[in-house]
Amino acid sequence: MADNIITVTVVTPYGIQYSHRAHMVSVKSIDGDLGIMANHEPIVAPLKISEIRVKRTDNTTHVDAIAVNGGFIEFQDNVATIVADGAERARDIDLSKAEQEKSEAEQKLHKAESQHNIDEQRRAEVALKKAMNRINVSKHL
Question: What are the structural domain ranges in the chain?
Fold first, then answer.
């Protein structure tokens, strides 16, 4: 049984945000979706602003959802290390705050578009993606 177990760790500049043993981790890389299980060949891949799903070993029906703000995943020797600027488990997301951030990002985006300010538009688009990701992940409790 131990042969099909991996360790999944999510690290941000604030330290380890998540660490568990798992049967599988699913991520969205910039090149497509990845499902990584034990004995997968080593890989390093950049990640999108997206949800990570971890199928834990302690309960076969339990899957943790984690919102990440991009980053990358490295998998080697049955250890998946995800490094991201920010990461939050679904249970830790403040939904009302995420919805407020979404509203603010939408307002900034409309303003930047009307002023043809490409730099501000890109920043607002990223902020909107982060807020929408947090909202979507928070619903996976």
Answer: 2-90, 94-138
